[in-house]
Design goal:
Layout: E1 2-8, H1 10-17, E2 24-29, E3 44-49, E4 57-69, H2 71-78, H3 87-98, E5 109-119, E6 139-143, H4 147-162, E7 170-172, E8 178-180, H5 187-197, E9 213-217, E10 232-236, H6 237-245, E11 248-250, E12 256-258, H7 261-266, H8 270-273, H9 292-301
Parallel strand pairs: 1-3
Antiparallel strand pairs: 1-6, 2-5, 3-4, 4-5, 7-8, 9-10, 11-12
């Protein structure tokens, strides 16, 4: 299995390592101009400090998706899991790397969304592979089954085991061939995946203004609804609120239904009734629309007839 060792900002690492129970992180690049590496979801993304900090291997996470984000959206989605105490501190770091000021709304950063991160204590830091060239500034791909990549991979597995029980990141197939398994998503990863799956457009209206678009769970996470694309809808914020409160639903055949209760309770709703019966915009390939059983649950349990 191929995995990536990415050069990592020390302050980013140290801050995240100090937080309890971090389930996901945004490993961001100061510019979205070029993606450092193409990875499969479920691949490992390993953290390596700059040479000035000893160049040690210090942790890693499971790759979910690479996307482009405004700093504001990144902060609203991941908060301190961007590796900074505040949005202003994050902006300062981006500006330092870029060498110019940063607009939180219109500039873009590259975002590697990682889940199940782990941070090794200093006594478990691993020396970089001997074939790591000093001129590598972003990172390098390794093979977990051959050469120095296999040696490093074994060291990482031993270091992770010393941290205690962890979620499996790979399983042996026949004859010991490693295979990827689907990563367990967090709330931020869910938001990114749903937003991109729907082409950054509201599933009902087609609205593209990012600050008002929100990833909605069809079945809430608090009621065992998973953080999964097929349990998600990208909705304009007012429609998200109406959906959660049962004034709007999406039927199993992907049609919008608007409850008569809006008119009865608020003596209003003309703009919403114009949406009644409309087919939603389905996610772009290869992503699937919401699962029928989740939509049936919402229509039967939440929708206010």
């Amino acid at each position: 299995m191929r995995y990536w060792v990415g050069v990592t900002d020390y302050d980013w690492f140290q801050f995240l390592a100090s937080l309890p129970d971090v389930d996901e992180v945004n490993f961001w690049q100061p510019s979205a101009a070029r993606q450092a590496v193409i990875l499969q979801p479920g691949a490992q993304f390993v953290f390596k400090l700059h040479a000035a900090r000893g160049g040690f291997i210090v942790g890693g996470g499971t790759f979910v998706r690479y996307t482009k984000m405004s700093p504001r959206w990144a902060w609203d989605t991941f908060g301190v899991k961007n590796g900074a105490l505040s949005m202003e501190l994050m902006r300062t770091r981006i500006a330092r790397y870029r060498g110019r000021s940063v607009d939180l709304e219109t500039d873009e950063i590259g975002a590697f969304v990682l889940v199940e991160p782990y941070f090794l204590p200093p006594e478990q830091w691993i020396t970089a592979p001997p074939d790591w060239a000093p001129n590598i500034v972003q990172g390098k791909t390794f093979d977990s089954t051959a050469g120095t990549g296999a040696v490093l991979w074994e060291q990482l597995q031993l270091a992770r085991a010393a941290l205690g029980p962890t979620i499996a990141i790979e399983q042996p197939a026949a004859y010991g061939t490693p295979i990827l398994v689907a990563p367990r998503l967090g709330q931020g990863a869910f938001r990114v995946l749903v937003t991109d799956a729907y082409g950054r457009r509201c599933a009902i209206t087609g609205e593209r203004t990012m600050p008002v678009l929100e990833a909605a769970h069809v079945k809430p996470y608090s009621l065992d609804g998973p953080h999964a694309i097929d349990n998600g809808l990208l909705l304009r914020s007012d429609l998200h609120t109406l959906f959660d409160r049962g004034y709007v639903t999406v039927t199993p055949d992907l049609k919008v239904r608007v409850s008569r209760r809006i008119r009865e309770e608020f003596e209003n709703g003309r703009d919403y009734y114009a949406l009644d019966g409309r087919s939603i915009n389905s996610p772009v390939a290869p992503y699937s629309p919401p699962r029928r059983d989740f939509l049936e649950w919402h229509s039967d349990t939440v929708y206010r007839r």
